[in-house]
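Attaching the record inline, Q. Sequence:
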Amino acid sequence: MQFSKNNQYRKYFVDRFGISAEVMENYEFFERGKSVWAFTGKYVDVEDMEAMGIRALRLGRGLKPSTAFLRIIGRYATKNVIEIDEREALHYLRGEDIDKNFAAEPGYVIVKFKDNILGCGLYKGKLINQIPKKYRFMDTWV
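Structure, as predicted:
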Protein backbone atom coordinates (compact mmCIF):
# COMPACT_ATOMS: atom_id res chain seq x y z
CA MET A 1 0.00 0.00 0.00
CA GLN A 2 1.44 3.36 -1.03
CA PHE A 3 1.19 6.77 0.58
CA SER A 4 -0.73 9.40 -1.34
CA LYS A 5 -0.13 13.09 -0.74
CA ASN A 6 -3.23 15.03 0.27
CA ASN A 7 -2.78 18.42 1.92
CA GLN A 8 -6.51 19.21 2.24
CA TYR A 9 -6.11 18.16 5.88
CA ARG A 10 -4.31 21.41 6.67
CA LYS A 11 -7.66 23.17 6.30
CA TYR A 12 -9.24 20.87 8.90
CA PHE A 13 -6.75 21.98 11.58
CA VAL A 14 -7.06 25.64 10.56
CA ASP A 15 -10.89 25.58 10.58
CA ARG A 16 -11.52 23.28 13.55
CA PHE A 17 -8.83 24.49 15.94
CA GLY A 18 -7.94 27.97 14.68
CA ILE A 19 -4.32 27.01 14.06
CA SER A 20 -2.76 29.49 11.67
CA ALA A 21 -2.23 28.50 8.07
CA GLU A 22 1.42 29.50 8.47
CA VAL A 23 1.95 26.85 11.17
CA MET A 24 0.14 24.20 9.12
CA GLU A 25 2.20 25.01 6.02
CA ASN A 26 5.10 23.28 7.76
CA TYR A 27 3.34 19.92 7.43
CA GLU A 28 2.80 17.66 4.46
CA PHE A 29 -0.04 15.16 4.82
CA PHE A 30 -0.07 11.68 3.36
CA GLU A 31 -2.86 9.12 3.38
CA ARG A 32 -2.29 5.45 3.89
CA GLY A 33 -5.24 3.19 4.58
CA LYS A 34 -7.39 4.75 7.27
CA SER A 35 -4.63 7.00 8.57
CA VAL A 36 -3.32 10.43 7.64
CA TRP A 37 0.32 11.03 8.49
CA ALA A 38 1.96 14.45 9.03
CA PHE A 39 5.53 14.94 7.98
CA THR A 40 7.89 17.94 7.99
CA GLY A 41 10.91 16.53 6.18
CA LYS A 42 11.68 15.77 2.57
CA TYR A 43 9.52 13.00 1.13
CA VAL A 44 11.37 10.03 -0.32
CA ASP A 45 9.28 7.45 -2.14
CA VAL A 46 10.37 4.16 -0.63
CA GLU A 47 8.31 1.16 -1.70
CA ASP A 48 8.24 -0.77 1.59
CA MET A 49 7.79 2.16 3.98
CA GLU A 50 5.56 1.28 6.95
CA ALA A 51 5.15 4.74 8.46
CA MET A 52 6.22 8.27 7.79
CA GLY A 53 6.10 11.10 10.32
CA ILE A 54 3.38 10.99 12.93
CA ARG A 55 -0.22 9.87 12.63
CA ALA A 56 -2.24 13.09 12.52
CA LEU A 57 -5.74 11.79 11.78
CA ARG A 58 -7.76 8.63 11.53
CA LEU A 59 -10.29 8.34 8.74
CA GLY A 60 -13.70 6.82 9.29
CA ARG A 61 -17.11 8.41 9.72
CA GLY A 62 -15.22 11.66 10.16
CA LEU A 63 -11.76 12.95 10.85
CA LYS A 64 -10.38 12.08 14.29
CA PRO A 65 -7.19 13.87 15.28
CA SER A 66 -4.56 11.84 17.09
CA THR A 67 -3.55 12.71 20.63
CA ALA A 68 0.12 12.52 19.60
CA PHE A 69 -0.27 15.12 16.84
CA LEU A 70 -2.45 17.40 18.99
CA ARG A 71 0.28 17.37 21.63
CA ILE A 72 2.62 18.85 19.01
CA ILE A 73 0.37 21.46 17.40
CA GLY A 74 -2.18 22.06 20.17
CA ARG A 75 -0.27 24.99 21.64
CA TYR A 76 -1.12 26.98 18.50
CA ALA A 77 -4.88 26.36 18.76
CA THR A 78 -7.20 29.30 19.37
CA LYS A 79 -10.56 27.55 19.36
CA ASN A 80 -12.17 24.28 20.45
CA VAL A 81 -9.67 24.01 23.28
CA ILE A 82 -11.11 22.83 26.59
CA GLU A 83 -9.13 23.79 29.67
CA ILE A 84 -9.69 21.61 32.70
CA ASP A 85 -8.59 21.99 36.31
CA GLU A 86 -6.24 19.70 38.25
CA ARG A 87 -8.97 17.46 39.68
CA GLU A 88 -10.58 17.07 36.25
CA ALA A 89 -7.18 16.41 34.66
CA LEU A 90 -6.50 13.53 37.05
CA HIS A 91 -9.88 11.99 36.22
CA TYR A 92 -9.40 12.56 32.50
CA LEU A 93 -5.92 11.03 32.49
CA ARG A 94 -7.40 7.94 34.16
CA GLY A 95 -9.70 7.55 31.15
CA GLU A 96 -12.84 9.07 32.67
CA ASP A 97 -15.30 11.42 30.97
CA ILE A 98 -16.07 14.86 32.41
CA ASP A 99 -19.79 15.59 32.64
CA LYS A 100 -19.70 19.37 32.38
CA ASN A 101 -20.59 22.03 29.82
CA PHE A 102 -17.70 23.79 28.14
CA ALA A 103 -17.47 26.69 25.68
CA ALA A 104 -16.63 24.62 22.61
CA GLU A 105 -18.32 23.42 19.45
CA PRO A 106 -19.51 19.80 19.45
CA GLY A 107 -16.94 17.47 17.98
CA TYR A 108 -13.28 16.77 18.59
CA VAL A 109 -11.50 19.19 20.90
CA ILE A 110 -8.06 19.73 22.36
CA VAL A 111 -7.95 19.03 26.10
CA LYS A 112 -5.55 21.18 28.08
CA PHE A 113 -4.42 21.50 31.70
CA LYS A 114 -2.46 24.69 32.39
CA ASP A 115 0.23 24.75 29.65
CA ASN A 116 0.00 21.02 28.97
CA ILE A 117 -1.85 19.58 26.02
CA LEU A 118 -3.34 16.32 27.31
CA GLY A 119 -4.70 15.26 23.94
CA CYS A 120 -7.94 14.69 22.09
CA GLY A 121 -11.43 14.74 23.51
CA LEU A 122 -14.91 14.45 22.01
CA TYR A 123 -17.29 17.14 23.18
CA LYS A 124 -21.03 16.36 23.08
CA GLY A 125 -22.37 18.44 25.97
CA LYS A 126 -19.85 16.56 28.10
CA LEU A 127 -16.21 15.76 27.50
CA ILE A 128 -15.83 12.17 26.31
CA ASN A 129 -12.38 10.74 26.87
CA GLN A 130 -10.32 9.96 23.76
CA ILE A 131 -6.94 9.45 25.43
CA PRO A 132 -5.41 6.16 24.22
CA LYS A 133 -5.04 3.54 26.95
CA LYS A 134 -1.25 3.59 26.60
CA TYR A 135 -1.23 7.27 27.68
CA ARG A 136 -3.62 6.90 30.60
CA PHE A 137 -2.62 7.42 34.19
CA MET A 138 -2.85 4.34 36.39
CA ASP A 139 -3.42 4.45 40.13
CA THR A 140 -0.60 1.93 40.56
CA TRP A 141 1.91 4.57 39.41
CA VAL A 142 1.58 6.56 42.66
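The longest strand covers residues 116-123. The longest helix spans residues 9-17.

More tomorrow.
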